[in-house]
Amino acid sequence: MEFTNKNKLIRYAFFTALATTIYWLESMAVRVLPFPFLRIGLANVVIVYLLMRGEVVFALTINIMKTLLGGLASLTLMSPATLLSLCGGIGSLILMWLLYILPIKFSILGISMAGAVVHNIIQVLCVRWLIIQKDSVLYLLPILMLFGLVTGLITGVIAYELSKTLEGTEECPEASI
Fold first, then answer.
1. Domain count, the chain
2. Tell me, what's the pLDDT at 176?
3. What is the rounded distance in angstroms from the CA atom of residue 58 to the CA atom of residue 14?
């Protein structure tokens, strides 16, 4: 399907608003939990969906915008959390894109799970390097990697269902499980 410039702008606005709203709602919801740094990452459903459509630059732009606008809306823009989210988001998107373009075809679930795990690894490494300069922070990696597998699975399933719904077909070869 060919998009005009006006349609592209509307799509950018829609997906940015959707991802930012989900990001903000999730960051407000986790503030009441015992571990407010653990998030499912539901806004990444939009990123995974766009990546599966081959819209990598679009996904990168939305990823950066949702983090910055979500940080602004949740009053955490100038906090380390925003920097960690940006680093993890960009790093995981690069990995997911590489897995997507490899001749070996990974499923949407595998790509999403790998992205979530790498997101957590990058965040822990950034915390170790920038904030808490002690190796003991690295003890969190196995727990966060396991958490990333679960959240990546959830995000992947939702992105797959979104793809089926928006593409209007039961079978989506670009986003197969």
1. 1
2. 53
3. 12
Q: Which residues of the chain register pLDDT less than 50?
A: 1, 171-173, 175
Cα–Cα distance for residue pair 25/45, rounded to 1 Å = 14
Q: What CATH code is carried by the domain that includes residue 131?
A: 1.10.1760.20
- Tokens for 11, please give them: 């799509």
User: Residue 85: which of 24, 141, 33, 137 has the closest Cα?
Assistant: 24
* CA-CA-CA-CA torsion sign (34, 40, 44, 45): negative
Q: How far apart are CA 125 and CA 154, in angstroms?
A: 24
Output the pTM of the full model.
0.85
Domain that holds residue 152: 5-175
For Cα atoms 22, 91, 24, give the angle at the middle one, nearest 5 degrees.
15
- The residue assigned the tokens 């499912």 is 40
CA dihedral 7, 11, 17, 18 (to 10 degrees): 140
**Cα gap 56→116, rounded to integer Å:** 17
- Assigned token pair, 43: 């806004």
Per the CB < 8 A criterion, the answer to whether 161 and 141 are in contact is no
Tokens of 46: 């939009």
Q: Which pLDDT does position 46 carry in this prediction?
A: 94
